[in-house]
Write a structure and sequence with these properties.
Strand order of the largest sheet: 1-5-6-7
Strand content: 15-25%
Distance between the termini: 36 Å
Oligomer: single chain
Largest sheet: 4 strands, mixed
Order of helices and strands: EEHEHEHEHEE
Number of helices: 4
Number of strands: 7
């Protein structure tokens, strides 16, 4: 079948590129930073009795179905058990909980997703990792995805199928 001279052909749609849009896999939910500096005496010392009272009287249900990052932004020595006790009380309510800032939380969420990602499904394929998104997908997720795909994909590109930046191409044997 011959095309008419003015027929527009969508070469992107007919190509064998596989597009991965990380926005589709974005872990939805509120992210909360729980800073325990206000639970310290003069923001310097954790008093066990006071901290246990805080644990006992706090309504942990406010963290229901949220992603929580626990930190202490004060320059103080906080015993490890305090974070552990906090985690034990938060665990029944949260979607996920980490020790660290919101960036650490985001990295842990994407690590959990990528640990289950079927990289081998992209064996010998040309892959485009979609670049633009409305959600705040971190650079970490893009770099980790590219690393995971590299042993399998024939080529990896970034951007949109109509305008890509080549990142990796497997050398021919």
């Amino acid at each position: 079948m011959e095309l008419e001279p003015d027929t527009i052909v969508n070469k992107v749609a007919s190509s064998n590129l596989i597009s991965i849009d990380l926005e589709v896999y974005y872990p939805h939910g509120d992210r909360v930073l729980l800073d325990i500096k206000d639970q310290l005496f003069q923001e310097l010392v954790l008093r066990e009795k006071d901290f246990r009272e805080y644990i006992k009287t706090t309504d942990w249900s406010q963290y229901q179905s949220k992603y929580v990052a626990i930190v202490c932004s004060a320059d103080a020595i906080v015993p490890t058990w305090a974070y552990m006790l906090l985690a034990i009380h938060l665990r029944p309510y949260t979607k996920n909980l980490v020790f660290g800032n919101l960036e650490v939380l985001e990295q842990c969420l994407w690590d959990a997703f990528l640990a289950k990602f079927p990289f081998e499904q992209y064996q010998d394929n040309k892959v485009v990792i979609k670049g633009c998104s409305k959600l705040p997908v971190p650079v970490y997720a893009f770099t980790a995805l590219a690393q995971g795909l590299q042993p399998f994909a024939m080529s990896i590109m970034y951007g949109e199928p109509c305008s890509t930046v080549p990142l990796y191409k497997r050398k021919a044997l």
